[in-house]
Amino acid sequence: MIVFENIHKEIPFLIFKEKYDAAFNAGQKNIEAICISSYSSENKEVHARYVNLKFVKDKEFIFFSNYNSPKSRQFKTHNQITALIYWSSINAQIRMKAHVDKTSINFNQAYFAKRDQKKNALAISSKQSSAIDSYEVVKKNFEHSFKHSDLTKCPDYWGGYSFTPYFFEFWDGHELRINKRETYECKNGEWIHSFLQP
Known about the structure:
Layout: E1 3-5, H1 11-25, E2 33-40, E3 45-52, E4 55-57, E5 60-66, H2 70-77, E6 80-87, E7 92-102, H3 105-114, H4 117-125, H5 135-148, E8 158-172, E9 180-187, E10 190-196
Parallel strand pairs: 1-4
Antiparallel strand pairs: 2-3, 2-6, 4-5, 5-8, 6-7, 7-8, 8-9, 9-10
Helix pairs in contact: 4-5
């Protein structure tokens, strides 16, 4: 599940929370799964992957990652992202555009110290997305970290990313494909509201 703290009172943030509550009450599985798309300036490719959205604090959406991962390197050179959620339980899709930044060291450390120690052991042991000889090596590295690492201390190569959307599209599916597409785009501090054709 996603933790909400003092969610902002501007309309698109309230709509996001309303749809989240509807999906949660409908029993949505993997409700925190969010697809993050980024651009690699190095090889001129767009990449996408699912991460777990952990917090929405005021206007900030927060997930966590290895800071040496490919997506983290992409964020350094091109910090604009697109984020996408689909909740099948209510047939709703939410698309967002934003710029992404690292969360603070203090925030990372406080969050890491509260996490399940097995998750922390994996975060410590994994060089995320690096090639490895076999899955057995992954398990061996994890077991070593679980037994020998300080599982409450956040490593400097792991932490959060925060993004504040400047664009939302709320898509509601319809059985006849007469889908409702409602957008909010922030321009000069004001949210411009419109609808898109299906």
